[in-house]
Specification:
By secondary structure, the chain is α/β, with parallel strands linked by helices. The chain contains ten helices and twelve strands. It has a ten-stranded mixed sheet with strand order 5-2-1-6-7-12-11-8-9-10, with helices on both faces. It is elongated.
Length: 328
């Protein structure tokens, strides 16, 4: 089963239609059923007898269910499982996201599809409270669609952006499984760090797992770094080719933000799905990494966010098992 995280109060019909098309495309390829799921709880309304203050009251289950039914009819949704409404007696976005994540785990869902919003100001850093909370808490893979990703795309090309972190190879196995199931071509992308990045990472001691180990304070061996990155990409490519997956390798050396490099390759190669790790290193372990956040907000296609700490706390994959789309 693939869960479609539905917002019954959203007025962004175009984004919901795009999300619906893509969730059904993935579910059909995985021979899985789609189930809309939504979380509702308390809402703010005027106090009794027209009082001028607002008060928090439980949302009406009947009213929410009716709104969901109207929305699905408006979207001309194809046949799918009965929508699941999850009630949380709170206005907390975090608790609502946790409720959906827990339900997805209990039901054995393969993935959760959700919509995010491109925002300005603070929204350029925070994706949107519900999406971000879900990405940080769900042990089930989360695939997000932003307003920039409403164009029609096929899933015949997948891009996996890697920093060669401690869980990257195990994350790659999950991407390979999906590429096999969808019969997709796989592009492996690594962006070489700039000199300024290396200096910062070295001084903060926050890059202990790079291709050459901990970097010295000066005299960076950039040629060795480049060669090491190529060797690691080659080893990853060999893993995919051994499973019958067609692979393209990209080693980006341009002086530009990592997110820009990822998005440039996505547009250039008409990628249908981006897979990337949400965190790497100590400084980003508590929050969704800034690169992931920027890519999710601006990507022209769905983004599968892999969270290593959650997915790979479990035993490693056994060869020959059916793809599970585990999230990291």
């Amino acid at each position: 089963m693939v869960i479609w995280a539905l917002d019954p109060l959203s007025s962004e019909t175009r984004l919901q239609q795009a999300s619906l098309r893509k969730v059904h495309a993935v579910a059909e390829s995985l021979h899985a059923e789609v189930q809309p799921a939504y979380v509702y709880g308390r809402i703010m309304e005027l106090g009794p007898s027209g009082s001028p203050w607002l008060e928090s009251i439980p949302a009406s289950r009947t009213a929410i269910e009716s709104r969901v039914d109207r929305l699905l009819r408006k979207l001309d949704a194809p046949p799918m499982a009965k929508p699941m409404g999850l009630f949380v007696d709170t206005q907390s976005t975090v608790l609502r996201a946790q409720e959906l994540a827990d339900y997805a785990s209990r039901s054995g869902a393969l993935a959760i599809f959700c919509e995010t919003h491109a925002r300005k100001g603070l929204g350029r850093f925070f994706l949107g409270s519900f999406t971000e909370a879900l990405l940080l808490r769900s042990a089930v893979p989360v695939i997000s669609v932003s307003p920039a990703g409403t164009r029609r795309t096929a899933f015949n090309r997948i891009l996996f952006a890697t920093d060669f972190g401690p869980y990257s190879r195990r994350a790659l196995r999950e991407v390979i499984d999906l590429a096999k199931e969808l019969r997709s071509e796989l592009t492996l992308l690594h962006v070489l760090p700039t000199i300024s990045t290396l200096v910062t990472l070295s001084e903060l001691a926050s890059y202990p797992h790079g291709p050459l180990g901990r970097f010295p304070s000066k005299g960076f061996p950039l040629d060795d770094l480049r060669e090491s990155a190529r060797q690691q990409l080659d080893r990853m490519a060999a893993m995919a080719r051994a499973e019958g997956v067609t692979v393209q390798l990209v080693l980006s050396e341009k002086v530009e933000p990592v997110a820009e490099a990822v998005l440039r390759e996505v547009r250039k190669r008409r990628i249908g799905l981006i897979a990337l790790e949400a965190e790497s290193g100590r400084l980003s372990s508590a929050l969704l990494g800034s690169v992931s956040r920027q890519v999710i907000r601006r990507a022209p296609c769905p983004v599968w966010t892999i969270r290593s700490r959650l997915a790979f706390a479990k035993p490693a994959r056994q060869t020959g098992r059916k793809p599970t789309l585990r999230a990291a």
